[in-house]
Amino acid sequence: MPTLQIAKLGNPVLRQIAGPVDLRNIRTYDIQQFIDNLIETMLDEPGIGLAAPQVSRSIQLVVMGCEGEDGFPQTVLINPKIVFYGPEQVENWEGCLSVDGLRGKVTRPSVVRVQALDRHGKSMDFEATGLYAVCIQHEMDHLIGKVFLDRMTDMSTITQLPEFSKYWQDDPVPVI
Ligand code: ZN
Question: Is 94 marked active-site?
Fold first, then answer.
């Protein structure tokens, strides 16, 4: 399966508002093949999430998945909406496949409730916590033209990769 080229910061597609996926198109070969390619690209990079605009397709579709202790199942969200944010905020390091070589601390709500369609067009309604909640918010930001840098409240935490390894590597960093 071909991997897709990642749009990097500065590419205008990352700043566009993504349009919804037409329900009638979800089961088409085009969309199903695109989802498979998106997952393949995410795993190949590697990252734990990838949004369609990050491969220059401005539609409301994201994929994510992470193995391991703090992991979560492979998830495809089409036309997702966050319908509830928990009151508590958590701070995490984030990185992004569209932002090479940088990490930064982002504060986000620790719990979200999401409504979306899965890859077969079936409705989903679920709550996510921990890394899953962070990943969902990060990916959904890509659908409204935002990257994690826009969500940082303290820009002084921006860190380059070698310095991250040297000074901060004990902290976990999702690259989404
Ligand atoms: Zn990202």
Answer: no
